[in-house]
Specification:
single chain, mainly alpha, two-stranded antiparallel sheet, CTLH domain-containing protein, CTLH_C, Ubq-SigPath_Reg
C-alpha cells in the first residue's frame, strides 16, 4: 500500500488540461449560470440538444425506476418514437406495466391490468422475439401469486429490481439512438477509475483513494443494448478492435462483438456506449467538481446570502478566456442538432492549439519592475524590495478582484419533469431559488456551501488564487513578495519553489536582453541555492544555457508557468490550511495507475487521445531534474503538482503514447501472434506476451503447448 501511495503522490498532472475538461463538464451539464441571451432558431446553443436528450433519458429512467411506466412510454412516444418500433423493448415495457398495475392492488387497477394484457401485452408477445410468448404466459401467473410470495414461480417478475434493469436497458438504447453521451470528463473519470480498481485488485493493494472511488463509481452497470438480428453470425470486425474494446471496458469477447455490431463497427462509438453503461454517483461527482471549481477559481466561492437568490458577482466569465482549452466535446459543435458526435482528432488538435495560445499569452507578460543597473553591484532581483503594507494589500485585492469578476456562479442541477418539458419547448428559465436540488439530490445549495462560508476561509481562497494568477503571468517577484509578507519562513521550508521562481526572473531578464541583471539573479540566488542542494546543480546549468539562445524566443518555451502556478497554489494553500480538492487526488492517483497498467500491457492505450488522458499527462519543458522534483514532492509540498519533472521521463512518445511504455516489439512479439494467443486462450495481453516470449514469439507453439 505504501508503494502505491508514493507513486500516486509523485504523478505530475497537466492541471490546465483538467481545467478545460471540468469547464466543458459544467457547461455541458448546465451546472453554472450562463449569460442570458435570446435563443436563435437558426443557430441553437451547440450543446443544448445533447443536454436535453440527457435530461430526457434521466427522466425516463426515473419514471421506470419508480414504476410509472405510462409516463416513460408517453415520453418515448413524444421524443423518441423510433425506439418503440423495437417490439422487444415494447414487450418488456408492457409486461412491466402489467406488473405495476397489479402491484397497486385495487380492483380498478386489476381491471386495467386485464385490459393491458388484452390490448397491448398479448399482441406484442406474438412478434417480439421467439421466447416472448412463453414469457407472456408465465407472467400471467402474477394474477394468482401475490407480490409477497417469495417462493412463487413469478417472484422474479414481482421483484422491483426488474424496474432498474429495464430502466438501464432503455438508457443504453436511448444514449446510442440519440447520441446523448455524457461529457468527455465523465467518461474519462469512469475509465481511469475502472483501471485503477483493476490494477489495485490485481496487485492486492489498498488504494489511498478507495473511499472516493468506491462511492463515485458504482458496481452495477446498465444492461447492454443489442440488435435484433442473430448474435451467432461471424463478426466482420478486426480482432484487434475486438480485443481492445474487451480489455478496455472489461467485456467478454462475445460482449465486445455485440457492442461493435450495435455500433455498426465504429470502435469509438462502441467504447462510448460501454463507458456510459458504467454508473456514477452524480451528486458526489457534482460535489467534487464544485469543490475543484472553487479551488481553481472557475466559479465564485461566495455562499447564498439571502432567501431571494444566489449572490451575483460582478462581471461574467467567458470560459474561453478563463481557460483556452475549454472548447471540448459537444460544445465545439457548430452545426445542426444532429451533429453531436466527437472525434478524437478534433479534440487533440483543439487542445494543442489552445495550449499554444496559452504559451503565447504567457510570453507577453508585462515586466512591472524594470531593472535599474546604475550600480554594478546591485542585485537586479526585485524580490527583496519592501513596499508599504497598504500597497501590497491593494495589489492583492486588485489581482483577486479582477479574476473574481470573471468567475461564474454555481447553479447545480434542476431536473424535474417541468424543466424537461421547458427544455424541449425552448423556454428554459435559468433563475433558481437557493434551495434547488444539487446533483440530483435534495441538498440545499446554502448548506452545500457551508464549507466555504467563513470570511477567513474566503480570504484564504482569494489569496492563493491571487498568487496563482500572478505566477501564471510570470510575475515571480510579486509572488515572492506576497508570500514573504504572508509567511517569512515559507521559502526556507520550500527552497525548490524559491529556485523555480528565481528561474522565472532569470528567464524574463534574458528574454528582455538584460543579461547583466539575469546573471546577478543567478549569482545572488540560483547559485547559493544549488550549493546547498546538489540536486539543483544540473537544472542550474540547464538554466544558464538559455543565455546562448536568442532573446527573441518566446518565454513560454522555457517556463511551464501554469504548472508552477499550481505548485504555488497547492503549497501556499496547505500552509493556510486549505487542502487540495479531492478530485486532484483522484486524477493524480488514477493517471499513475493508468501509466502502470499499460506498461504491464506493453502497448499504448488507443483510447487515451479520445479521452484526453494523454493531454492530462503532457507537460512543457521542465525547469528542474528528477532528483530535485522528487525532493520537492517528498519534503516541500507533500504531493502538490510539480513543474520539476525531467523531460526525459515526461515527454510523450511521437505516437502520442504514455511515457515509459514498453512496446511488444521490444521483446520480439508480432502483434498478430499476440492477438491470436489472446483470442484462442482468452488471456490478458500481458500474459499472452509473456507466453510468446518463452516460445520465440510463435503463437502456434504456444497454443499447442497449452493444449498438449
Amino acid at each position: 500500500m505504501e508503494s502505491l501511495a508514493v507513486n500516486c503522490e509523485s504523478m505530475a498532472v497537466n492541471w490546465e488540461a483538467l481545467d478545460a475538461l471540468v469547464i466543458d463538464f459544467v457547461k455541458s451539464e448546465r451546472l453554472i449560470e450562463e449569460e442570458s441571451s435570446p435563443p436563435s432558431s437558426a443557430h441553437p446553443p451547440p450543446s443544448s440538444s445533447s443536454y436535453r436528450w440527457r435530461l430526457l433519458i434521466r427522466q425516463i429512467r426515473r419514471s421506470l425506476e419508480s414504476g410509472d411506466i405510462d409516463s416513460a412510454i408517453d415520453l418515448l412516444r413524444s421524443y423518441a418514437p423510433a425506439v418503440l418500433d423495437d417490439h422487444r423493448l415494447l414487450f418488456r415495457l408492457q409486461k412491466q406495466k402489467f406488473i405495476e398495475l397489479l402491484r397497486k392492488g385495487t380492483n380498478e387497477d386489476r381491471d386495467s391490468a386485464i385490459k393491458c394484457v388484452r390490448t397491448a401485452l398479448a399482441p406484442c408477445a406474438l412478434d417480439a422475439y421467439p421466447e416472448a410468448y412463453e414469457e407472456f404466459k408465465h407472467v400471467l401467473l402474477a394474477f394468482i401469486y401475490g407480490k409477497d410470495d417469495e417462493t412463487s414461480p413469478v417472484a422474479n417478475e414481482w421483484s422491483e429490481r426488474r424496474r432498474f434493469e429495464i430502466a438501464g436497458l432503455l438508457s443504453s438504447v436511448l444514449r446510442a439512438h440519440l447520441h446523448a453521451y455524457d461529457p468527455i470528463f465523465s467518461m474519462t473519470l469512469r475509465y481511469l477509475i475502472s483501471i485503477h480498481k483493476g490494477i489495485c485488485l490485481r496487485k492486492g493493494v489498498l488504494s489511498p483513494i478507495t473511499d472516493l472511488t468506491e462511492r463515485l463509481l458504482l458496481e452495477e452497470r446498465d444492461p447492454p443494448a443489442t440488435l435484433q438480428e442473430s448474435l451467432y453470425e461471424a463478426p466482420p470486425f478486426d480482432e484487434v478492435d475486438i480485443q481492445a474494446l474487451a480489455h478496455a471496458v472489461e467485456l467478454t469477447r462475445q460482449g465486445a462483438v455485440d457492442s461493435l455490431r450495435f455500433a455498426k463497427g465504429d470502435l469509438y462509438l462502441a467504447f462510448q456506449n460501454e463507458l456510459c453503461r458504467m454508473r456514477v454517483d452524480a451528486s458526489m461527482l457534482d460535489e467534487l467538481i464544485h469543490e475543484y471549481c472553487i479551488y481553481r477559481g472557475i466559479v465564485d466561492s461566495d455562499p447564498v446570502t439571502s432567501d431571494t437568490g444566489l449572490q451575483v458577482t460582478s462581471g461574467s466569465l467567458n470560459v474561453d478566456q478563463l481557460n483556452p482549452g475549454s472548447c471540448l466535446s459537444e460544445n465545439c459543435s457548430i452545426g445542426s442538432n444532429s451533429d453531436m458526435s466527437i472525434t478524437s482528432g478534433h479534440m487533440e488538435g483543439s487542445l494543442q492549439s489552445k495550449v499554444d495560445v496559452m504559451s503565447t499569452q504567457h510570453a507577453e507578460v508585462e515586466m512591472r519592475y524594470p531593472c535599474d543597473i546604475t550600480s554594478p553591484n546591485e542585485d537586479c532581483s526585485t524580490s527583496g524590495t519592501r513596499q508599504p503594507e497598504e500597497k501590497k494589500v491593494a495589489q492583492r485585492r486588485r489581482s483577486g478582484t479582477g479574476e473574481r469578476g470573471k468567475r461564474k456562479r454555481w447553479r447545480g442541477r434542476k431536473e424535474d419533469l417541468e424543466f424537461i418539458s421547458e427544455a424541449f419547448t425552448g423556454s428554459v428559465q435559468h433563475e433558481l431559488s437557493p434551495t434547488k436540488v444539487l446533483g440530483g439530490t435534495n441538498i440545499d445549495i446554502q448548506k452545500s456551501s457551508m464549507m466555504y462560508n467563513g470570511s477567513n476561509k474566503m480570504d484564504k481562497y482569494e489569496i492563493i488564487l491571487g498568487m496563482k494568477d500572478l505566477a501564471s503571468k510570470g510575475m515571480a517577484a510579486e509572488v515572492i513578495e506576497e508570500i514573504n509578507a504572508l509567511d517569512p519562513d515559507f521559502f526556507t521550508q520550500n527552497p525548490v519553489l524559491f529556485f523555480q521562481l528565481k528561474q522565472v526572473e532569470f528567464f524574463k531578464r534574458v528574454h528582455a536582453g538584460d543579461y547583466s541583471c539575469a546573471l546577478r539573479v543567478a549569482s545572488s540566488h540560483l547559485g547559493p541555492l544549488a550549493a546547498k542542494d546538489p540536486s539543483l546543480l544540473k537544472p542550474l546549468k540547464e538554466t544558464l544555457l538559455v543565455l546562448l539562445r536568442s532573446n527573441e524566443e518566446a518565454i513560454g518555451k522555457h517556463l511551464p508557468l501554469d504548472a508552477l502556478a499550481t505548485s504555488i497554489q497547492v503549497a501556499v494553500g496547505r500552509r493556510l490550511g486549505i487542502e487540495e480538492p479531492q478530485l486532484m487526488k483522484i486524477i493524480r492517483a488514477t493517471l499513475d495507475t493508468h501509466s502502470e497498467w499499460f506498461k504491464l500491457q506493453m502497448c499504448k492505450d488507443q483510447f487515451e487521445g479520445f479521452l484526453w488522458i494523454n493531454s492530462l499527462k503532457e507537460h512543457g519543458t521542465s525547469l528542474l531534474g528528477d532528483s530535485a522534483s522528487k525532493s520537492t514532492i517528498d519534503t516541500s509540498t507533500q504531493g502538490s503538482s510539480q513543474v520539476t519533472i525531467s523531460s526525459s521521463n515526461t515527454r510523450m512518445q511521437e505516437d502520442g503514447g504514455s511515457p515509459n511504455q514498453t512496446s511488444s516489439s521490444d521483446i520480439g512479439c508480432d502483434e498478430n501472434a499476440i492477438i491470436k494467443v489472446m483470442e484462442f486462450l482468452a488471456l490478458p495481453r500481458a500474459d499472452a506476451i509473456h507466453l510468446l516470449a518463452q516460445y520465440d514469439g510463435n503463437a502456434e507453439t504456444v497454443i499447442q503447448q497449452i493444449f498438449a
